[in-house]
Structures are given as C-alpha cells and as structure tokens.
C-alpha cells in the first residue's frame, strides 16, 4: 500500500468506472473541495471578527455563514 501513487489510484478508478460515473465522482469531489474552501475561509473570517469585534461576532457571523459562494467571500475579503 505504501507504494501506491495518486496516478495509480486514478488509473484503477478509470478502469473500474464508466465515463458517466467518473464525471459524477469528479463533480462531487469538486463540490466537496469548494465547500471545504468556503468553510475554511468562513472560519478564518470568524477568527478575524472575534479578534477585531468581539462583542458583535454572533450577528456578523450569522450573515457571513449565509454566503455559499467562494467568489463572494474572496471578492469581499479585506473590506471593512
């Protein structure tokens, strides 16, 4: 198991799955990756807000957590 590379796993998966199944899995993987990025960025924003505005964190973060677009979070990063 220690010698299996990502490329080997990809080749095995390609052989085992049909093109349609493979596309579904890649789409799902991309969606999960984006959700993870959004979650990570949201957590970073929350930390910054706690440090800068400790008394207002609940209200502000309730609004931030409604954002489900990575582009929106990145675009507005650094604005006050």
Can you give a write-up of this model?
This protein has one domain. The chain is 74% helix and 0% strand. The chain is built from 4 helices and no strands. Helix 2 packs antiparallel against helix 3. The radius of gyration is 19 Å and the shape is elongated. The mean pLDDT is 75.
List keywords for this structure.
elongated; 80 residues; mainly alpha; 4 helices; 0% strand
Question: Residue share in helices?
Answer: over 70%
The Rg value, from CA coordinates, equals 19 Å
**What is the average of the pLDDT values?**
75
Terminal residue distance: 49 Å
Q: Given the helix and strand composition, which structural class is it?
A: mainly alpha
- Oligomer description: single chain
Beta-strand share of residues: under 5%
Number of strands: 0
Q: Please give the count of helices.
A: 4
Note the run of SSEs as H and E. Answer: HHHH
Major β-sheet profile: none
How would you sum up the global shape? elongated
Question: What's the arrangement of secondary structure elements?
Answer:
Layout: H1 6-16, H2 19-52, H3 57-64, H4 70-75
Helix pairs in contact: 2-3
Describe this structure in a few short sentences.
The protein has 80 residues and is mostly helical.
């Amino acid at each position: 198991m220690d010698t299996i590379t990502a490329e080997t796993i990809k080749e095995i998966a390609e052989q085992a799955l049909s093109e349609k199944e493979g596309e579904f899995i890649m789409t799902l993987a991309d969606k999960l990756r984006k959700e993870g990025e959004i979650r990570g960025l949201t957590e970073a924003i929350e930390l910054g807000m706690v440090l800068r505005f400790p008394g207002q964190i609940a209200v502000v973060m309730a609004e931030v957590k409604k954002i489900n677009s990575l582009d929106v979070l990145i675009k507005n990063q650094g604005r006050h």
